[in-house]
Amino acid sequence: MLDKSYLVPWGKRGSLSTDTEAAVLAELVHESTPLPAGARRERFERSFAASVGSRHAISVNSGAVALQMAIRMLDLAPGDEVIATPQTHRATVQPLLDHDVQVRFCDIDPTTLNLDPAALEALITPHTRALLLVHYGGCPAEMDTVMALARRHGFLVLEDCVHALGARYRGRSPGSLADLATFSLRNAKSSTALGEGGLITCDRDDWAERLHRLRAPDGDTRTAYPQPAAAGLPGTSYAMPLQRGCLRRPGSDATMPEVVAALGQAQLAGVETAVARRRALAGRLDEVLGRYPFLTPQSAPAHSAHAYHLYTCLADHQELRDRLVLALDRRGVEIQLRYFPQHLLPQWRQRGHLRGECPVAERSWFEQHLNLPCHPTLTLHQQDYLIEALDGALAELNGGVPAPAALPATVCGPR
Question: What was the pLDDT predicted at 82?
């Protein structure tokens, strides 16, 4: 399935670009203010925080860096335990390898594919310091139950919102539901800034201050270096300025470029449109699956609104899943499977994690789940073809018998 041109490709970009972004780029080319100055970055941070309902948003240069810095805020110490979901990209849990902590992977709910609150409660011990969860595919996790457990047992919760921009949980936005949260602006996300970027949201002023210090070396231009003569050094042929930046504490130099911040600001207004297109296409896919009982879509609870960064469905068994993947591939529909259970990756197996630890997540990956293309850049023609190809492939697996009901045409985007 490699090096192949697909009629319905997997999304390479998850946001919609307009003339607004082009105008922003043109303005930046002629910008007289130094681009690292930060005015656009600060504006974007304020707008992003307001959009998710958080007090602070601290921008950085990637989603992975956002996760690394957010985990620093947890102040993990040797002997601490951290609970994490296995149903995620490796970047969510990778920073934990740098800490001398025990990671306990929590199994997932078979319907939402999010962390299962019942399994979570069974893993909590007096040493539990933090929980890392993901709103998988844009389906919000059951945060009320999770946060009630966290408050009762005294641990912190970090929500990875890489899929969840535009989702809703009981009317609130992911990014404001836990102690702190991270976002990514990478290529396939609902806001991409045409490149790489990340944000951390939180309500605590002290964390925001620490994150600002971690983001860049914390210099003090008010401190003067001694002049060469005063320091007992040979004279120089040029005059050394009296003021030089003096480093008070180290940082990571992870500042978001002004270009990325400016594009992120321009794209914020288009997030809802992009997510609406994902939801409209997901509705059409749901209609097809609803006619074939051997394939079930991931579903969000009634009190949540799915953002459909991923459209995930679950087959009754592995043979059916594998046959469907091949049938769709033959029809020119690109399929991806996301994600391999984290506890079974080599770096975590070296720390003692084994198969059988999260049986629901393992069954989902090895036997059931697949992700269908669902992104706003698909043309209406591609969407129509996807629906026909999916219906045809499922009819083939149903013994050549198509489901009876005709699907209504739903406009989800431009041709």
Answer: 98
Sheet holding 311-315, edge to edge: 295-297, 311-315, 369-372
What phi and psi values does residue 345 have, to the nearest 5 degrees? Answer: -70, 150
Residue found by looking up tokens 């009190």 in the block: 303
DSSP state of 6: -
Note the residue count of the chain: 415
Tokens found for residue 239: 């005059």
Distance between CA atoms of 207 and 352, rounded to whole angstroms?
33
At residue 314, the 3 state secondary structure works out as strand
What global pTM score does this model have?
Answer: 0.88
Instruction: State the pLDDT at residue 25.
Output: 80
115: Cβ contacts below 8 Å, ≥ 6 apart: 85, 87, 106, 107, 108, 109, 131, 133, 134, 141, 146
**pLDDT at 232 (0 to 100):** 54
Tokens encoding 27: 């303005």
Query: Token digits for 299?
Result: 């579903």
Are the C-beta atoms of 220 and 246 separated by less than 8 Å? yes
User: Rounded distance, CA 48 to CA 51, Å?
Assistant: 5
3-state secondary structure of 292: coil
Q: Which tokens go with 355?
A: 């198969």
Q: What are phi and psi of 249, to 5 degrees?
A: -155, 150
Q: Which residues of the chain have pLDDT under 50?
A: 1-2, 219-225, 238-244, 406-415
DSSP letter (8 states) at residue 358: S
In order of their start, the domains of the chain are: 19-217+251-268 (3.40.640.10), 271-397 (3.90.1150.10)
Q: Give one DSSP letter per residue of 53-102, joined into a string.
A: T-SEEEEES-HHHHHHHHHHTT---TT-EEEE-SSS-HHHHGGGGGSS-E
Instruction: Sort 345 into a burial class: Cβ within 10 Å, 0-12 / 13-18 / 19+.
Output: middle
Phi, then psi, of 183 in degrees rounded to 5: -135, 160
CB 354 within 8 A of CB 390: no
335: tokens are: 């399929």
Quick check: 36 and 182 in contact, CB under 8 A?
Answer: no
Q: Which residues of 101-114 are buried (b: 16+ CB within 10 A; e: fewer)?
A: bbbbbbbbbeebbb
Assigned token pair, 117: 């609150």
Range list of H helices, 197-343: 205-215, 258-268, 271-289, 318-330
